[in-house]
């Protein structure tokens, strides 16, 4: 933690919208703000918010690793490259000194710190044109997502979440001095959930309905809240919150033949929150998928298991597992130059959240109706069972296919405790290790996960 949190937020670039190149953050004073003196104006806080979104774009976060390595660990992807640190994920044999584990942890806590700076500074801005609560809602939703990611990767328990498992260190104020960066012990899982839910609830209540493309708004907050309730096993709340998002007429599913366009065309009607990239703000996602002949490094590819899970006629197969050149990749990421956007949450997830919640509540017909919305869109025959257990299994299978290459499969395996479904027989490997350096430099303050 000390390593990470000594990286004090001092520079926030405002030349580009959500700059993805982290080295740009070193551009000097006229494009930067000094967090040590606080953000005092509307423009200061807006710039700080852009820097907060920038943390998501990192290649160590939604810009690649936080979801791709989860898909690799859960068998949606296989490892075809040369990075030993990625091979550990493919082999489900993580070591506590894995560089990817360390970099993800540090990057997410940088995101926490940036959000904390906004949360601390926004209330002090005295400007009638500045919507303080909306700015706080954006920052708190980002912080909520950061802690959710940390908890679902490094915390919880082997059989799921919201069951008295372990948490991660919590920081709710800016890290501006060495003293602020002192290591903190891990909170309990319940304490981490408390901040996650407090923040998302604030965002739902205070975020504007429209904040611009790529920004958190009330619907984004509600959609992520539905996801959080699902992970917590709060079925009635998950069902109700997903229903609120589905009821918004601004969102609609793309037709089955256009499934690829959710990703090939940016910001479609199906998108609830999509992380923005362009020629000036790039990522390495397609580069990691594509072979050298097409300008990539061929580090990951679609698995045979993913291919074989598709039913005959499933229109998502050609998107999830390509058959042309290059083969066994995905049409969800095709721009090797790095301009692909990243789906954080989209409407299809709301239907499947509501379906699963209804099934677990014994509402078989309602669950079946939502499940069949997604199946029909994929060109598949409707199912007819209303048995709750059969429906849950069918919905989880549908989620693997629908969200392949989007990083939700490992989350589903964790929250349902279905480790053996992907060949994990050692329960402790449900939780990824706390970075060894964080444990070693904490002088015993930060405890390692069992088994590592």
Largest sheet: spatial strand order: 1-3
Q: Cα distance, first to last residue?
A: 18 Å
Low-confidence stretches: 1-32
Give the class from helix and strand content and strand pairing: mainly alpha
Number of strands: 4
Strand composition percent: under 5%
Rounded to an integer, what's the Rg over CA atoms? Answer: 21 Å
For the sheet with most strands, the description reads: 2 strands, antiparallel
Protein described:
The protein has helices spanning 2-5, 42-57, 65-73, 84-90, 99-121, 132-154, 189-206, 218-232, 235-246, 261-264, 285-289, 304-309, 317-320, 347-360, 364-377, 388-402, 409-416, 436-440, and strands at 77-79, 271-275, 300-302, 342-346. The chain has 452 residues and is mainly alpha-helical. α8 packs parallel to α14 (347-360) and α14 (347-360) runs antiparallel to α15 (364-377). The two termini are 18 Å apart. Residues 1-32 have low confidence and may be disordered.
Main features:
single chain; 452 residues; two-stranded antiparallel ribbon; 45% helix; globular
Short description:
The protein contains 18 helices and 4 strands. It has 452 residues and is mostly helical.
């Amino acid at each position: 933690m000390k390593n990470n949190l000594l990286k004090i937020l001092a520079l926030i670039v405002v030349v580009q919208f959500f700059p993805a190149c982290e080295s740009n953050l070193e551009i000097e004073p006229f494009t930067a703000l000094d967090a040590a003196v606080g953000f005092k104006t509307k423009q200061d806080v807006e710039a700080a918010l852009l820097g907060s979104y920038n943390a998501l774009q990192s290649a160590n976060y939604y810009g690649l690793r936080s979801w791709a390595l989860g898909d690799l660990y859960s068998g949606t992807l296989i490892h075809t490259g040369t990075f030993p640190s990625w091979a550990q994920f493919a082999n489900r044999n993580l070591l506590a000194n894995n560089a990817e584990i360390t970099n993800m942890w540090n990057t997410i806590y940088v995101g926490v710190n940036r959000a904390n700076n906004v949360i601390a500074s926004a209330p002090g801005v005295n400007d009638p044109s500045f919507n303080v609560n909306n700015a706080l809602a954006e920052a708190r939703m980002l912080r909520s997502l950061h802690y959710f990611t940390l908890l679902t990767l490094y915390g919880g328990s082997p059989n799921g979440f919201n069951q008295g498992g372990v948490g991660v260190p919590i920081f709710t104020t800016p890290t501006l001095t060495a003293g602020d960066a002192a290591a903190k012990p891990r909170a309990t899982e319940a304490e981490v959930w408390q901040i996650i839910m407090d923040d998302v609830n604030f965002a739902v209540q205070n975020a504007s309905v429209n904040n611009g493309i790529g920004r958190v708004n009330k619907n984004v907050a509600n959609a992520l809240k539905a996801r959080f309730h699902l992970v917590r096993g709060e079925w009635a709340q998950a069902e109700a919150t997903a229903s609120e998002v589905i009821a918004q007429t601004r969102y609609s599913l793309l037709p089955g033949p256009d499934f690829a366009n959710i990703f090939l065309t940016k910001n479609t009607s199906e998108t609830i929150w999509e992380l923005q990239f362009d020629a000036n703000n790039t990522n390495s996602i397609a580069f990691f998928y594509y072979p050298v002949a097409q300008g990539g490094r061929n580090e990951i590819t679609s698995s045979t298991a993913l291919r074989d899970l598709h039913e005959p006629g499933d229109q998502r197969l050609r998107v999830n597992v390509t058959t042309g050149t290059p083969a066994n990749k995905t049409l969800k990421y095709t721009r090797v130059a790095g301009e692909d956007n990243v789906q954080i949450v989209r409407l299809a997830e709301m239907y499947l959240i509501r379906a699963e919640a209804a099934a677990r509540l014994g509402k078989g017909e309602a669950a079946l109706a939502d499940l069949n919305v997604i199946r029909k869109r994929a060109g598949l025959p409707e199912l007819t069972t209303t048995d709750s257990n059969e429906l849950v299994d069918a919905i989880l299978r549908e989620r693997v296919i629908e969200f392949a290459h989007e990083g939700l499969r490992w989350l589903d395996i964790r929250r349902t405790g279905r480790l053996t479904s992907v060949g994990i027989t050692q329960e402790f490997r449900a939780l990824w290790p706390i970075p060894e350096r964080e444990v070693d430099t904490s002088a015993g303050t930060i405890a390692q996960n069992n088994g590592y």
